[in-house]
Amino acid sequence: MENELEENKEVVKIGENISMNTQFVYKNKIMERLLQSVNMVKDVLQTNLKLRQQILKMSKDIDKANLNFTQVQKVNEELKDKIQVLTREELDDDSRGVFLE
To answer: Cβ contacts of residue 99 below 8 Å, gap of 6+?
Structure first.
C-alpha cells in the first residue's frame, strides 16, 4: 500500500512537470507570436512613414508644377494681349491705306 502511495506521488510529480513544461512551451509560443506581431507593426509603421514622405514630396512637386503652370498661363495671356494689340494696329494701318515698307 505504501509502495502504491509512493508511485502515485511520482505520477503526480510527473504530471505536474508535464503541466509546467506545457505551460512553458505555451508561454514561449505566445512570446514568439507577440514578437512577430510587434515586428509586423514596426514594419507597417515604417512603410507608413515612407509613404507619408513620398506623398509630401509629391504634394510639393505638384504645388511647384501648379505655380509654374500659373506663371506660364500668365505669360501666355500677356502674349495673347500683345498679339491682339499688334493685330489691331496692323488692321488700323491697313484700313487707312498706310503700308509699311
So the answer is: 93
